[in-house]
Amino acid sequence: MEEVIKVNHLNKQIGTKKVLHDISFTVSKGECIALIGPNGAGKTTLFSCLLGDYSTEKTMITVLKDSPRSKKLKDKVSVLYQENIIQKRMKVKELISFYRLIYNNPLSLQEVDNILRFSELQKNQFTEKLSGGQKRLLSFLLAVIGNPQIIFLDEPTAGMDTNIRQHFWKVISLLKKQGKTIIYSSHYIEEVEHTADRVLLLNKGQLIRDTTPYALRSEKEEKVFSIPIKYVNLVRDLTYIYDVELKKDNICFTTQNPQKVWDIIYPQVDLADIEMNNITLLKKIFTVTEDK
C-alpha cells in the first residue's frame, strides 16, 4: 500500500525533558489509526511533531514524502483540535461559505449537508447558539471541508451525544472508503475497538505496541477479584497477585493465575461473595485519564 507517513527513530526533547524516545512507524493511505496511551505518554507531542508544530530532524518524519512543515501540505493535511475553534458571531451557513472559498477543491454543498445534517433553521443560527455536539460536528466539518488527504483528530467525539457520535463514525467510514488517512486519539474504548485498523500505544514517550484492536483483545487477560475484607488472610501472602487495594468492606486484586486464586478462595468464600472480571490490556489503558 502507498505510504503516506513515515516516522523514523523519532526523538523529541522539550527543554530538559525527553518526551519521545526512538519512535518508528509507517502509515499507509486509507488507514484509520488510533493513538492511545495514559496521561503524559507523549501523544500530544507526537501529534505536534507530525503536524510540523514542533521541529524535528529532516530524516525523522516525512508526510506525503515531504517535511511536515512544508507549505505544500497546507491543503493536504488537516487537524481537528480537542478544543472547538469556531467564530462565534457568524451564522453557520456564512462560516461554511467562507471556508469553502479558502480551498481549491472544497467539499460540495451536498457533501457538507451529508456531514452536518443541519436543518435550514440551524444553518441560519449563529454558531454560538449550537449545542456542544453540534459545535463539535461543525468543527469537524471545517477541518475536512478542504478535502484533505490526511486527517488528524484529537478526541474527535468529545461533547457528542450517542446519536451524533454514531453518525460521526459513519462519516469517518465513508472518508476511509474515499482513501482518506485518519489518525485520531480517543479515550472511548468502544471507538478504538470498532473503528481503528491499527492501534499505536504510547507509554512514557515510547511506542510499546503497534498492533490491531483484535490482537490487543487477544492478549493474555488479567482477572480482577474482589472478596470480603474478612478473608484478606487467604490471599495476603500470595506472590502472584498485584494491584492489591484494601477497601472498607472488600479487598480487590489482579492476577494472571486465576485458577490458583480460585482454588484457594472458593472452598472458604461463598460464591455470592466472589466477584471476578476480565481486564485486557486495552481496557487497562483506558482506566487512565488521557493527556490533554
From TrEMBL:
Mention any Pfam family matching this sequence: ABC_tran
Q: Give residue ranges for domain ABC transporter.
A: 5-229
Q: Which InterPro entries match?
A: AAA+_ATPase (IPR003593), ABC_transporter-like_ATP-bd (IPR003439), ABC_transporter-like_CS (IPR017871), ABC_transporter_ATP-binding (IPR050763), P-loop_NTPase (IPR027417)
Keywords attached to this Swiss-Prot or TrEMBL record, sorted alphabetically, are:
ATP-binding, Nucleotide-binding, Transport
Superkingdom field? Bacteria
Gene3D superfamilies, per the entry? P-loop containing nucleotide triphosphate hydrolases
A single Gene Ontology MF term assigned here is:
ATP binding
**What protein is this chain from?**
ABC superfamily ATP binding cassette transporter, ABC protein
User: What organism is listed for this UniProt entry?
Assistant: Ligilactobacillus equi DSM 15833 = JCM 10991
- Organism classification, top ranks? Bacteria, Bacillati, Bacillota, Bacilli, Lactobacillales
